[in-house]
Amino acid sequence: MVLRRFFAHGKTKTSLPAQGQRQRNGRVCLSLLMLCSALTGLAAGGGAQAAATSSVVARAPSPFHPDQTDRAFLADLEHRTFLWFWDSADPATGLVPDRYPSDQTQSSVASIGFALTAYGIGADRGYINRQQAVDRTLTTLRYLWKLPQNDSPDKAAGFHGFFYHFLKRENGLRLNPDIELSSIDTALLMQGVLFTTSYYTHDSAAEAEIRDLAAKLFNRVDWRWMLRPDNRLSMGWSPERGFLSNYWEGYNEGMMLYVMGLGSTTHPLDPTSWQAWISTNKSRWGESYGQTFLNFAPLFGHQYTHAWIDFRGIKDDWSRSAGIDYFENSRRAVYAQQGYATQNPGKWQDYGPNIWGLTASDGPAETTKVENGQPRKFMAYTARGVGRDYTLDDGTLAPTAAGGSVAFAPELAIPALRTMRDKYGDRIYSTYGFVDAFNPSYHDGKQAYWADDTYIGIDQGPILLMVENWRDGMVWNTMKDNPIICRGLLRAGFRGGWLTTRHGIVDHDDAVRLKQQQQTQTKAG
Length: 525
Fold this sequence. Notes:
Elements: E1 2-4, H1 15-19, E2 22-24, H2 32-37, H3 68-88, E3 99-100, E4 107-108, H4 109-125, H5 130-146, E5 158-159, E6 162-163, E7 166-167, E8 181-182, H6 183-199, H7 205-220, E9 236-238, E10 242-243, H8 255-263, H9 272-278, H10 281-284, E11 285-288, E12 291-294, H11 300-308, H12 317-322, H13 326-343, E13 360-361, E14 367-371, E15 374-378, E16 382-383, E17 385-386, E18 391-392, H14 399-403, H15 410-424, E19 429-430, E20 433-434, E21 438-439, E22 450-451, E23 455-456, H16 457-471, H17 474-479, H18 483-491, H19 498-501, H20 508-524
Antiparallel strand pairs: 1-2, 3-23, 4-7, 5-6, 8-9, 9-10, 11-12, 13-16, 14-15, 17-18, 19-20, 21-22
Helix pairs in contact: 3-4, 3-16, 4-5, 4-6, 4-16, 5-7, 6-7, 8-18, 11-16
């Protein structure tokens, strides 16, 4: 069986668990003028979407003062998680597996995006030296650039700049006919590609080649080709079936697609796409376990875009109208999950204030067992979560849910991670940090509880990046100087925060004036 992740949120609120992840066969600071020169087609965007504001129930962050034990633990976790990417990647191609160690061998383009970012973290932290990071990054980008892009079913790695979800380890081509050309997995890859353009800025031939290859890879992505007539992006395409019927809207990891698409200078989306993206916010805004926020049940939807982009203090039309930023929104989602585990309506074993975390992950098995006199349905890989839309829970806990939330709510996430490690020991915390998942409620007569024996790249990634962002902010700070990300945010209507303090952008009119000044200076020169 080939384990594949297919993010299918669709139009219906319940579509993710039904159609979602399933098993199938088969840093340089840029001058402000350089930034403004990229702002072609800058638009104010449409009107704000009204937020359905019932009284907002949200706790302020509790004072959190990490002690030396906390800091030492986070340092150890970050290093171990980095090693997963360093050890699992093929040094000859840069391809990174979906899971490792595992008898499954398919490469995941999303894992590669996290890996490209991991190498910079490793160099900054001294886990590897900069030359090692440069060499591995160059190997990866060269290999990706040379892979064929065409519409054939079995002789391509992608088409229109997009990549297939999974690639064959031996040659980098599409894994099998069941694998879609994935917009979100390509976006995760491209976040890592953009990171390399802003991190590797030394005046050397190797780092110049990194920047050149990364620009070519990103500029080749034809975002408009993946665009539907309603200005929403499709989730994917295949030669056999054409475009998938599912598309990206609402608050979830698809946010990054629109930011990068709006920031593109070769195939840019129109700002109306962002308005289409946020058009369902009103219906997704509501209360869940003591918090009012844009609901999305599994925590990965709150983590992936935020792992690279710092949304603290920057707001678009909708978030200005709601009185919060998207970072605060996702912080509330973390509090809601902890509130759910504390109440523990399903009476799952060990759930509590410091043991929580639902997201897409492995699980023990597709089976029903009688536990304490009542039938319990357990699941294998699925998108577990809790929110206003749905709750899907079988007692399986994924450490990446807390690990990828360290930057959002360290006062909740760090105690949770430490408690889980201390309670369950080396069955869940080993060579590469936390295994993908474990389930204290699943008993098979041989072990006291089920624990995974593998790690998944797109669950390791949020842990590594968000721990680094909490410790030092390196990934966020690197991406704040990326012109594609800045341009995408501005064209989506984001203003304030670091866009003002770092780049001097105050409002839309200011951005237009600065662009005009740059054009005048260019003509005068």
